[in-house]
Amino acid sequence: MSSLSGAGGRPLSVGEEGRMGGGEGGGGEGKKSMAPGGVAGGSVGAGGAGGPLVEFKQAKDYVTTIKKRFASEPHQATYKAFLKILHHYQEEQRNIMDVLEQVSSLFADHPDLLKEFTYFLPDAVQEQAKERLNRAAEESEMRKAARQQQQAARMGGAWGKS
């Protein structure tokens, strides 16, 4: 599968600190773009609301959320793994289904990150990706609810024994 495109359909590359940069190239209205931090930003067609600055901010906010959430990990392992997944996709070493599988696994306990990731995917895979990531998010939410119930049961059992 081809690499993600920047605004105007330009190919992107991952630079230092996982930042994405646009290369030179032709136009491509309506394509998704990659923004700083390695996240694809949904582009808005001509005359649409939002635009590149809104997309850039949303992508940057998403990456910042990931970076902050996993900041306490040694060497920011999850954040760096996320950037690596995107880099491999951009380098055409992974297809979009591999990316979805890896992101689903990486953010298995973070349904909000899974759901938000769908916004930044290319138009061609939006529906399929939304289905896959929403399913992963639902599974994550069910696991979280089950853990909370188990924790509540343990706490209730502990209170009942006192």
TrEMBL record:
Residues 1-43, 131-162 are annotated as: Disordered. One of its GO terms (molecular function) is transcription corepressor activity. It is found in: Nucleus. One of its GO terms (biological process) is negative regulation of transcription by RNA polymerase II. InterPro entries: PAH (IPR003822), PAH_sf (IPR036600), Sin3-like (IPR039774). Residues 131-144 have a biased composition (Basic and acidic residues). One of its GO terms (cellular component) is chromatin. Keywords: Nucleus, Repeat, Repressor. The keyword Signal does not apply. Its main location: nucleus. The keyword Metal-binding does not apply. PROSITE patterns: PAH (PS51477). PANTHER family: SIN3A, ISOFORM G, SIN3B-RELATED. This is Histone deacetylase sin3 component. It comes from Nannochloropsis gaditana.
